[in-house]
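Whiteboard transcription, Tuesday session. T.W. wrote the structure tokens on the left side:
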């Protein structure tokens, strides 16, 4: 079984160089390494050229987000309240949908 819930932490990302992606970490108490994380987006508008490529929890209480910068100049992802979906599995995930 699983539980899905949403959290809304305020994140303050740093600049991402042009045309690359970079992982940034944020302290989010309660996250577990077995959680499945999906960043739904920022409440408001994201900086032009910035997209969220991946998110996970590799260390307890630490959210990792890979920001990709598609612009030709350095850009800083927007600071603010992000909506994050957390799915917490109880036991291993099934290997198929049957």
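and on the right, the sequence the group agreed on:
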């Amino acid at each position: 079984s699983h539980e899905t819930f949403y959290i809304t932490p305020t994140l303050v990302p740093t600049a991402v160089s042009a045309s690359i992606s970079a992982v940034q970490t944020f302290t989010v108490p309660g996250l577990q390494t077995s959680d499945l994380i999906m960043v739904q987006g920022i409440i408001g508008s994201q900086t032009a050229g910035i997209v969220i490529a991946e998110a996970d929890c590799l260390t307890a209480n630490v959210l990792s987000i890979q920001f990709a910068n598609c612009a030709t100049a350095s850009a800083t992802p927007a600071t603010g309240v992000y909506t994050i979906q957390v799915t917490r599995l109880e036991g291993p995930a099934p290997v198929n949908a049957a």
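Someone added at the bottom: The chain has no helices and seven strands.
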